Amino acid sequence: MNLEQIHAFISQPWPWWMGGVTIGFTLWILFRFGKEFGLSANLRTMCAADGAGEFADFFAFDWEKQGWNLMVGLGALFGGYIAANYFGGDGMAHISQATIDTLNGIAGKNILTEGNVPIVPGTTIVTTELDPFWSIYTWESVFTLRGFIIIVGGGFLIGFGARYAGGCTSGHAISGLADLQLPSLVAVIGFFVGGLIMTWLILPYILQIPY
Amino acid sequence: MKMFKYIVVGFIFGFGMWKLEAISTFRIIEMFHFQSFHMYGIIMTGVGAGLVITQLFKRGKVKTFKGEIKTFNPKAKTWWRYIIGGIIFGMGWALTGVCSGMMFVLLGAGYTVFVVFLAAAMLGTFAYGLWRSWLPH
């Protein structure tokens, strides 16, 4: 295999079982370093680093000891940069036809077709021109009511819920379930109950807000 | 630099999450509509690998680089925080289609608007810290 073939091999969409390889490697190496896997803890660390300890004891801890986890987050940022820009492949989300139909149903028009669904709807170098209905993750969008609710509202719920529940997808769904922690199972069931309520009962209406 | 190794770990994780499309908001909608096995496959193989790895470390078959046995902190056995907090997190996950780790990946990929998402998530965390003593746990 020459370099070009290796590049093409990595650039194709990865099958789901690569999730086990990627997550397994991450856990293995972090455990070897004597650490844990949980990315939402970084939100608390960043609050503490900004001086939130003056307002609540929850943030009065030695946040510099959590510096390693911030580095994992920073590494994930670099990983996203390299993957999107140099190994992005076609830059599309290879979702099922059923989902494409569902999404077009929500939009009320046939915007998305197979092989033409950007991995994340918004403007970057990897996505092509897209109908404004799905241009959600852009700076223009965040100044509309719809984009504000999705980006700011979602961010607030994620930050609040992750700390309330004591972990997020990485801390509970991966690390907690892997350690057979019953509280984590309860939290993950909660994630899905909340996710289903939002996806089925609320999100379609939020997406209909004029933008 | 001793922090560099953690950047490498995060790099591989973030790279993988992008290639697996786990950062795609459409993939999250697909998952909550049960229209593909893809996301479940990622989570299930991730947990499966994690189960084996956690047991190996717990039983001391594999030790940390320092030669110590890795300890795991059991989660407190209360319930309201996991139920209510979990539902709130799940609603945020489905609303934006992004969870806390994925925002770093998206920021790196060039979706700079996610600094607003990150700030909102920090505000949410801060709000929890403020209201903590009034919330049922």
What do you see in this structure?
The complex is a heterodimer of chains A (211) and B (137). Chain A is built from 9 helices and no strands. Chain A has 211 residues and is an all-alpha fold. The longest helix of chain A is centred in the last third of the chain and has 26 residues, at 182-207. The radius of gyration of chain A is 20 Å and the shape is globular. The model of chain A has no long low-confidence stretch (mean pLDDT 93). With 137 residues, chain B is mostly helical. Helix content of chain B is 64%, strand content 0%. Chain B has helices spanning 4-19, 25-32, 38-58, 80-96, 102-109, 114-131. The longest helix of chain B has 21 residues, at 38-58. The termini of chain B are far apart. Chains A and B meet through helix 2, helix 3, helix 4, helix 5 and helix 6 of A and helix 1, helix 2, helix 3, helix 4 and helix 5 of B.
Helix/strand layout:
The complex is a heterodimer of chains A (211) and B (137).
Chain A: H1 3-11, H2 18-32, H3 41-49, H4 67-86, H5 97-107, H6 139-142, H7 145-165, H8 169-178, H9 182-207
Chain B: H1 4-19, H2 25-32, H3 38-58, H4 80-96, H5 102-109, H6 114-131
Helix pairs in contact in B: 1-5, 5-6
Largest sheet of chain B: none
> Helix segment count of chain B?
6
Q: Quick one: overall form of chain A? A: globular
- Taking the alpha carbons of the first and last residues of chain B, their distance comes to 40 Å
Biggest interface, residues from each chain? A-B, 132 and 116 residues
Helix content of chain A: 55-70%
**What letter string, H or E per element, gives the SSE order of chain B?**
HHHHHH
Indicate the low-confidence ranges of chain B by residue numbers: none
Oligomer: heterodimer
Distance between the termini of chain A: 49 Å
Alpha-beta content class of chain A: mainly alpha
> What is the string of SSEs of chain A from the N terminus onward?
HHHHHHHHH
Radius of gyration of chain B: 18 Å
Mean pLDDT of chain A comes to 93
Strand content of chain B: under 5%
| Tally of individual helices of chain A | 9
Approximate shape of chain B: globular
